Amino acid sequence: MKHILEALDQRREAARLGGGQRRIDAQHKRGKLTARERIELLLDHGSFEEFDMFVQHRCVDFGMDQGEKIPGDGVVVGWGTINGRVVYVFAKDFTVLGGSLSETHAQKITKIQDMALRNRAPIIGLFDAGGARIQEGVAALGGYGEVFQRNVLASGVIPQISVIMGPCAGGDVYSPAMTDFIFMVKDTSYMFVTGPDVVKTVTNETVTAEELGGASVHATKSSIADKAYDNDLQALLQMRRLIDFLPASNTDEVPEWPTFDDCDRYDMSLNTIIPDNPNKPYDMKELITKVVDEGDFFEIQEAHAKNIVVGFGRLDGRTVGIVGNQPMVLAGVLDSDASRKAARFVRFCDAFNIPIVTFVDVPGFLPGTAQEYGGLIKHGAKLLFAYAEATVPKVTVITRKAFGGAYDVMASKHLRGDINYAWPTAQIAVMGAKGAVEIIFRQEIGDPDKIAQRTKEYEDRFLSPFVAAERGYIDEVIQPFGTRKRVARALAMLRHKKLENPWKKHDNIPL
Length: 511
Description:
The structure is a single chain. By secondary structure, this protein is an alpha/beta fold. It has 3 domains: about 1-245, 2-enoyl-CoA Hydratase, Chain A, domain 1, CATH 3.90.226.10; about 270-425 and about 465-495, 2-enoyl-CoA Hydratase, Chain A, domain 1 (Alpha-Beta Complex), CATH 3.90.226; about 430-465, no CATH class. Helix content is about 35%, strand content about 15%. It is built from 19 helices and 17 strands. The strands form 3 sheets. Strands 10, 11, 12, 13, 14, 15, 16 and 17 form an 8-stranded mixed β-sheet that branches. Strands 1-2-3-4-5-7-9 form a 7-stranded mixed β-sheet, sandwiched between helices. Strand 12, helix 12 (about 335-350) and strand 13 form a beta-alpha-beta unit. Helix 12 runs parallel beside helix 14. It is elongated, with a radius of gyration of 26 Å. It starts with a helix and ends in an 18-residue tail after the last helix.
């Protein structure tokens, strides 16, 4: 028996070496961790249970049967825990044939996807690979298709997270694209459908891998990545933090963690956060961190569409999704990018029963030909649609401006907002006083005194929260310092809310 156990240990040790020590050293030299090192950092110490360690590919073409069979076949799969909660994980191993996807490689991934879906637990994919294994041809492509199908079936059922920690090209990019969140590592990761060489051949455009699909590009311009981190370690530790905010599945309650932050806490500084000048900005993130438990706010897509802020926080220990217009950027207007960013976040929260808290300070939609030609109408409708279909608890606080159609879009009472508060500084109207007066009293434009008087009349009549409150569109005008307490109590009251939309196969959101 002893020699059998020793043989098992030897086989395991060989499998754990992946492509060998020389390739592991090369991986470290690039500033990257190996697949198993990444899993060890991501999961609770000693919790990882690996499956299919000895799986090998079955390809015999192009010399693949001559010494190229390495146990594990370029991907490490299994399950473990993060702060005691079960998660499934797969990590592509770049030291084995560049982490390329073969038929058996794909079967290992689909096996763990099926387990995650059956057992209703999150799945995290760590990507570091060169695409499909060319030697296997259509078998590799079929493997991709199997992975993609499971991404779609799991969407909205269990959280799916992709972390790009090296190259991710060709067919490899579409699996992350269908997951809930994508995170990248600066300088060592990139994503693109076709690489720089193909781009050069087809379009005669010279571009580097970093310029084409690096972390800075996807976190700022394309919005493919939700955030970019400085190195592997930071990325993996932040994934542990993110998982703490997320429910295990769409049938689970949101996580509830002990907090030392009293939900009845008042913050008097909120009384002075709104400047006296209505055109002067303030930082919505400051407001958010003052309201959530212990100032802990996990922002999503912070480098893209900065005129709106989205992310996760906690109130009374329970996860909430937070959306807020950012007056510091473009005065907080809604444009195409901001609408898409917030719409996707709202739909994620609704899919996983995460309550949504919305802070409103929006002067309207961004005007101009660039926005109109770029489809602002449909992009704005995405956010409108997302809020309108959401059945989770929705609490809204209007801090300052809520003008025009943007007032409706931002979780208004008319879109089944459950509790809608306003600060005394709120201004709810079709448009700002200046624009409104210039339209209503166009004939008096030449008389500055009359225009000033009319502007004052308009401000007194419409630019206050009380007109909306008179009609029941605002449930209460609250003191800013008590915002945390009022929102937390509202969410506690709504904890067992039940609301169902009419039956449908699926909706047809304006994509």
